[in-house]
Amino acid sequence: MHRAPHHWSTSRRGAAAALAAAALTACLLGGTAATADPRPGAPRTTLSSLPSPPGGSDVRVLVFHASAGAEPPTVDAGIAAIEAIGQSGPEAQRFRTEATDDASVFTDARRLGRFNAIAFLTGGGDVLDPEQEAGLEAYMEAGGGFLGIHGAARAEPYSDWFTGLVGARPAAGSPTAVQRATVEVGDRQHPATRQLPLHWKRPDTWLNWAVNPSGTVHTVARVRESTYRPGTSANGWDHPVSWCRDYDGGRSFYTGMGGTAASFAETDFREHLRGALLWTTRLSRADCKATIDAHYTAERLTRPNQPGQNDQIGEPHGLVAAPDGRILYIGRGGADSSRPVVTDWNDPDVGKGRGEIHVYDPRTKKVHLAGAVTVFGNKGGGDELTKNEEGLLGIEVDPDFLSNGWVYLHYTPHSRINRDTRMAERYVSRFTLDPATGKLDPASEKVLLKWPVQIHSCCHAGGGMAWDSRGNLYIATGDNNSSGFTSGYSGNNPEPDFKGVSFADARRTSGNTNNLNGKILRIHPEDDGTYTLPEGNLFTGRETDEGGGKTRGEIYVMGVRNPARIFVDRTTDILYAGWVGPDAGAPSTTWGPAKYDTFTAITEAGNHGWPYCMGNNQPYRDRNLPDPAEPLGWYDCAAPKNESPNNDGLVNLPPVTPNSIWYSPQGGGVDYPRDARGVPSYRTEEQKLLLPWLKGGGQATMNGPVYRYDTASAGAVTWPAYWDGKWFVGDFYDGDQPRHAVLMDPGTIGRGGLPVHAESLKKIIPVGANGIRNLMDWKFAPDGSLYVLDYGRGFFTSDSRSALWRVTYTGGGPTPAADALARKAAAQ
φ and ψ at 263, to 5 degrees? Predict the structure, then answer.
C-alpha cells in the first residue's frame, strides 16, 4: 500500500523528541547495550543464539528486513552473513546481531538504544510509517549508524530524508539479470575497502542511479560499466556502487552490491560488509568526507596586475612549493598585452621578453616580485613562423633550499640567440634567493647545462623540472619541432629546414639519441655548479653503432613531444609525465593515430615513442626524402629505427615502452583491432575506448602531482589521507578534458599498465569562466593544500584572469570522534 509523501508532521516531531531523550542518547553514544530481551511476540524477530564474543560484547547491530511485498531471497543469507561477521575477527571488533521485520522497534526508545548500527536488508516499498521514520531519524541524530544493502535504496520511496540517508535511488530500467562485472576499489583507506583487490570481479545485479550521488557522498567503489550490460539507464564511467557519508548526526554506509543470496557467501563481500559495520558501529574511525565537493574551498590568491605592470603575476608557466610553504611561480616571458611585440628578425630586440619569478607567502598572504631573467620568448600570435614558446619554462628549488637559497631556472636567454641562423641556447641555471631581501641574485648564476634549440619555427619547449629522493634533477624538454608539415600526424617530415637545421622532423630531436630536445634528462647537480650523471640513465654517452652515431648520457627518457609538466613521487621515485600530442583530429588508415595527448608513469629509463609510436604502441607511417608526402612502411615499436637524414645519433633505438593514459577527440585510451604485424586498423567504427572517463578535442596535457599525506604536518586545510598515492592528471582546457585523480596498479605501473580507477576533480578544482579555466600547473604545498596556476584567457601574455589559486580541505577529520568510539578501552 502506498501512502502520500510524509515529512515532518506534528506526530513525527513528537516521536523524534521522545526518541532523542536521555535513554536513547546515553545507550547509543555510550556504546553500552541494554540487557532487555526483544519484546515477546514481535513478528519474525530473532536474537542471535550465538554466545557473546569472548570478553563480552557490548556492541550490537540490528538487521531490519521488512518489505512492502514478498521478502527478498537475500534476507536469510544476509542475516547469517552479518551474524558470522559479528562473531569472527579480532575480539575488539566483534558484535552481536539481532534481526527483525517489526518496524515498531523504531518507536521504542529503550529497545532502539541497544544498537550501535542498523542494517537495512529490505526490499522496496514504504516499510515505515511517519512515526517510525521519525524514530529512525532521531536515532541518526543521536549518533547512530546505518548500513543499507542493495534493495534498501528502494525503501521509503516518498521520503526525501531517507533518500539522503541511502544517498541515491535506483533508476527505472536498471538491469535485473545477474552479471559478472569489475568493481574499481578507489578508497584504499576505508576499512570497508582497504583489503579488497583493485580489480574486484564478481557477479551481482547492478543498479543504475536516477541521480548520480558522486560529490554529495564519499564513493569508496565504482562498477565499471564496460564489463557488463548496464542497460538504457546507465550512469557512464562514473558509476558509484558503494559509498558513505556523515549524515544528520550519524554515519551512513550504502552498498549497491548484495543483490543475490550468493553474494553473502563471498569472502571479499563479507570483508566489505565487515568494514562498513566497523565504521557504522563506531568500532573504528574512517573518513567519509574526502570526496564530497562541499568540503573543498578554492580561493584566488592574486589580484589582477596593475596597469603596465606584472606586480602579481606574469604569463603563468610553472610553480614550486618551497619547504617553508612559500610558493615560487614563474611567467614565461609574454609582456602585458598593451606592449608591442618585436617580430622583426632585423631588430636586435626580436622576441625579447622578461621571465619573472614571483613569490607568494601564505603567512602574509602577499606577493612580491623576486626577480626576472631576460629571455627570448615574447613573440606571440601570427602564423607558424612567428609565434614562439621559448622563455622562462621551469623552476625548482634545491632540496636544501632553506639553508642555501638555491633556485633552478630552465630558460632561453635572449643574450644567446643568433638572429642569422635563428638558433638559441637553452639553459638550466642555479641562482641564489637572498633570504634577507627575498630577491633573486642575478650575479649568482651558475649554468649547469646548456644545449642548442632552433627558434626559426615554433614550438614545443617543454620546461618542467623535478627532484627525486636521491638528489637527481629531472628536466623535461620539448621536441623543438613544428606542428605543421605532416597534416597533424607523426612529426617526421625531413624536408623543411632553415639554413640546414630541420624544424619539422622530430627524428632530429625526440627520436635522436644525440640530442637533448624531446627528452626527460636526469642529472645530479653538484655544489660547485657542475653536474654528474647518475647510474641508470638510458645511455652512457659512449654508445656507437654501425653508422657511427652516438648518445648523450643525460637522457633518461627519449621519445616525448612537449612535456610541460613532470613530477617525481619521492616516496617511490616514480616519474610521472605528460606531453601534448600532434594536431590530427581523426585517425588515418594511411598515417596512423589521431592526436594523442599522453600521461605516463615511468619506473625506469626508456623510449616512449614519439615520433614513431603513441598510446599503447600504435605506430605511425614512415616518410622520407625524396618525397615526404609518399607513405613508407609502418614503424616497428619493438625495434624502431631512426633513418632520418637529420639524425646524428644511433639508428637502432631502444624498444618503445607503452604509455599509461592517452586521449584524443574520439575518447580516452583509444584502441583498435590489429593485424598480424601488430598494426591497428585505425578505423573509427572499430575503436574501443579503454579509458572511457577521458575525452579530448582542444587538448593540452598538464601533468600533476602524486599526493602524499603527511600525518606530522596535517592541519585544518590538509587534503585527506584518502588521496594518498593518487596521481592528478589534467588538461589546460576545462571542457570534456581530464581533471582527474587516478589510481595505478603497482603490479603494472611503468609497463604501460592502465589506471584502475579515476574520479573527477572538476567540482573540487572548479572549472568554467569564474573558475580555473586554463590549468597551467598544480602542486601540493607542505601543509597539504593544493596550489594551482590559471594561465588566463589569452596566449603569450598575462591578463586579468591569470592567477594563482589555492584549494583547501575544510571537511574535518575522520569520524566518529576518537572519544566516541565504542569499546574504546577494549580496542586498545
Answer: -55, -40
